[in-house]
């Protein structure tokens, strides 16, 4: 008998991977969590049936959500990640040479535990001396911070359940207040093919809060449609310009990719132009 895991990316489209083993399934306080061993992508973490990360392609997402802002900011020392409990974004943050401290604020401790148990390449940052892991709602955490971060990264789930508010205009204004005077925000903003409404919501909210707002893209095989977007808000620095391009250990990110990622196909430009 064969075992297949399917994410229903839309009501009419399923993305299926042949699995060899189910390593964990549980209902946490916030979401359904599963870890499965797949033949194509290695270990896969799913939350509420949606692929969050896999061993074989995690580096595209984690490099691109982190290295663009960290290389466009001239002095990225204090970094906050909201969400990202698998640890992949934290790994990218702490290995950047300029970073002094990377704080991860994840609402669900079971995601952190699943990473510790099954994703050695992602969880190694948890024990890095530059890293701090806080189990808390990022929406509440950010409200209590003022002018203390150089870069805030929102590595959230889709805008359902506890992540809904992470896409709101009020949240982006709170991030603005938590950033230093030349700070930058980057948020994952879903697929331009399937989630134009989410991109529009994120971009509009970020543009209201920040003087500079830009969208960029990356190709991620296991995410819906394979084309993924990120939205940056910046107080001063142009996020499209790689100042430093720390790319030695990267597999996807480099300075050419940094600049090219902001060149948008017409249908994507139109999502944010209207
Ligand atoms: N790369 C992924 C994607 O785009 O599918 C996201 C990965 S990461 C596992 C997302 C994390 O955001 C989850 O672990 C979830 O628990 C966390 N999260 C959702 N809402 C949150 C909130 N309000 N505060 C902190 N963490 C939150």
Textual characterization of the structure:
About 30% of the residues lie in helices and about 35% in strands. The protein contains nine helices and twelve strands. The protein has a seven-stranded mixed sheet with strand order 8-7-6-9-10-12-11. A five-stranded antiparallel sheet has the order 1-2-3-4-5. About 45% of the residues are buried. The structure holds S-adenosylmethionine. The site of S-adenosylmethionine has 25 residues, from strand 5, strand 6, strand 7 and helix 5.
Q: For the residues shown, what is the average pLDDT?
A: 96
Report the span from N to C terminus.
Answer: 50 Å
CATH architecture of the largest domain: 3-Layer(aba) Sandwich
Give the overall shape, derived from the CA principal axes.
Answer: globular
DSSP strand content: 25-35%
Order of secondary-structure elements: EEEEEHEHEHHEHEHEHEEHH
Count of runs of 4 or more consecutive helical residues: 9
- Low-confidence region ranges: none
Main sheet properties: 7 strands, mixed
Specify the helix fraction band: 25-40%
Number of domains: 2
Number of strand elements: 12
Structural class, please? alpha/beta
Strand order of the largest sheet: 8-7-6-9-10-12-11
Which superfamily, in CATH terms, is the homologous superfamily of the largest domain? Answer: Vaccinia Virus protein VP39
Determine Rg (CA atoms, Å): 17 Å
CATH class descriptor of the largest domain: Alpha Beta
Which ligands does the model contain, each kind named once? S-adenosylmethionine
CATH topology of the largest domain: Rossmann fold
């Amino acid at each position: 008998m064969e075992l297949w895991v399917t994410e229903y990316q839309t009501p009419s489209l399923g993305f299926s991977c042949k699995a060899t083993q189910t390593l964990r399934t549980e209902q946490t306080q916030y979401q359904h969590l599963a870890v499965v061993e797949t033949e194509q992508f290695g270990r896969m973490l799913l939350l509420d049936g949606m692929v969050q990360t896999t061993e074989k392609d995690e580096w595209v997402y984690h490099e691109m959500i982190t290295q663009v802002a960290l290389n466009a900011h001239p002095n990225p020392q204090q970094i906050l990640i909201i969400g990202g409990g698998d640890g992949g974004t934290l790994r990218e943050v702490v290995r950047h040479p300029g970073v002094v401290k990377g704080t991860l604020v994840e609402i669900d401790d079971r995601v952190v535990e699943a990473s510790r148990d099954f994703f050695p390449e992602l969880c190694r940052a948890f024990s890095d001396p530059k890293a701090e892991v806080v189990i808390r709602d990022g929406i509440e955490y950010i409200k209590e911070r003022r002018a203390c971060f150089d870069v805030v990264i929102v590595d959230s789930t889709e805008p359902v359940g506890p992540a809904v508010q992470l896409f709101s205009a009020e949240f982006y204004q709170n991030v603005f207040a938590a950033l230093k005077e030349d700070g930058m925000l980057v948020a994952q903003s879903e697929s331009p093919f399937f989630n134009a409404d989410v991109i529009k919501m994120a971009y509009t909210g970020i543009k209201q809060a920040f003087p500079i707002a830009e969208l960029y893209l990356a190709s991620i095989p296991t995410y819906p449609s394979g084309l993924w977007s990120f939205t940056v808000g910046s107080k001063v620095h142009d996020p499209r310009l790689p100042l430093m391009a720390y790319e030695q250990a990267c597999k996807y990110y480099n300075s050419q990719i940094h600049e090219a990622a902001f060149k948008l196909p017409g249908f994507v430009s139109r999502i944010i132009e209207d």
